[in-house]
Amino acid sequence: LKATFKQDSLLLLSKATTSISQGSGNNIGGARCTWELCPATVTLAHRVSSAVAGDDLVTNVMLHTSDLFMESKIESKNANRINLQLPLQGFAEALKASSQALSTVLRLTKRDGAAMLAFEYTMPGVAAGSAIQQFLPVEAILTDEQAAVIRELSVPEPEFQLYFPGVHVLKSMVDRMKSLGAHHVRVKVQKGPEGDKATMEVACESGQAQVATKFPNLAITMEQKALPCPDFAEVVMPISRLQSLIGVCSVGVQRTVLCVAQGRALLVYMGLSHGVGTFMCVAPVSTE
């Protein structure tokens, strides 16, 4: 593996990885991610494990290889596909440092017999030929089957897919709900009379108060959806799970589609700026 980043796309990947890292909770030091590189696409995947099977918060960031790299050589005996398991925090830090450079070259190499990702970059104001090298240990090179388990988004087709102004608009409201002692939050979607728009209500109650906020006239999108929308759908989940979803998805995007799968999960699909790829996160209803 040898590739030269496009610095603007590297910055987007860096922001997405930092967002995932910050939304990973208290286990950030031990959190891992997988990075699949192939000639067509590059996919970053992260799974926040839960004690309940099928209850993991799963995030995938996919970029087109030609949009991420100016030039690249991705070769392997596995049909030119490479699956790397990396420490999430270390990867986020390496991307952030190199995203501020003038140019960055990425290599998969070995150091003292151990697999490493090497970032070689030149910072502004540094003399030519004085490149900085940063090495990130590769924890494992995974098989396709192992990587697929981490990337898998196993949620049936959602009842509603709504264009949404951005998950970040929920943050202050959800933080206030938690400060009032709420433990669970209800997200309910009601289809409008014309069938092309819906109202979403986010509500909770605690011993102190009941809080509800409505988002009216959200456009429904049927893209890649086979079944018609019902009259309503809702999910109830721990407020900490919704906070994790908001934290993971705090990255700059072109558009956001918020999906509600009745009684099962919230899904967020975001198009990264300049159309270079997609950011997807699935938050199953947790039983915590």
Provide an overview of this structure.
The protein has about 290 residues and is of the alpha+beta class. The protein contains six helices and 18 strands. The protein has helices spanning about 5-20, 65-70, 90-100, 145-150, 170-180, 240-250, and strands at about 1-5, 30-35, 40-50, 55-65, 70-75, 80-85, 105-110, 115-120, 130-135, 140, 160-165, 185-190, 195-205, 210-220, 230-240, 255-260, 265-270, 275-285. Strands 10-6-2-3-4-18-17-16-11 form a nine-stranded antiparallel beta sheet, with helices on both faces. Strands 5-1-7-8-9 form a five-stranded antiparallel beta sheet. The protein has a four-stranded antiparallel beta sheet with strand order 14-13-12-15. Strand 2 (about 30-35) and strand 3 (about 40-50) form a beta hairpin.
Write the layout of secondary structure elements.
Blueprint: E1 2-5, H1 7-22, E2 32-37, E3 41-48, E4 57-64, H2 65-68, E5 69-73, E6 82-87, H3 88-99, E7 103-111, E8 114-122, E9 132-137, E10 140-141, H4 144-151, E11 160-164, H5 171-179, E12 184-191, E13 197-205, E14 210-219, E15 232-238, H6 239-248, E16 253-261, E17 265-272, E18 277-284
Antiparallel strand pairs: 1-5, 1-7, 2-3, 2-6, 3-4, 4-18, 6-10, 7-8, 8-9, 11-16, 12-13, 12-15, 13-14, 16-17, 17-18
Helix content: 10-25%
Tally of individual helices:
6
Task: Look at the helices and sheets and give the structural class.
Answer: alpha+beta
Catalogue the unreliable spans: none
Cα gyration radius (Å): 20 Å
Secondary structure: number of strands = 18
Mean pLDDT figure: 89
Indicate the proportion of strand residues. 35-45%
Helix-strand string: EHEEEHEEHEEEEHEHEEEEHEEE
Oligomer: single chain
Largest sheet: 9 strands, antiparallel
User: Strands across the major sheet, in which order?
Assistant: 10-6-2-3-4-18-17-16-11
The global form is elongated
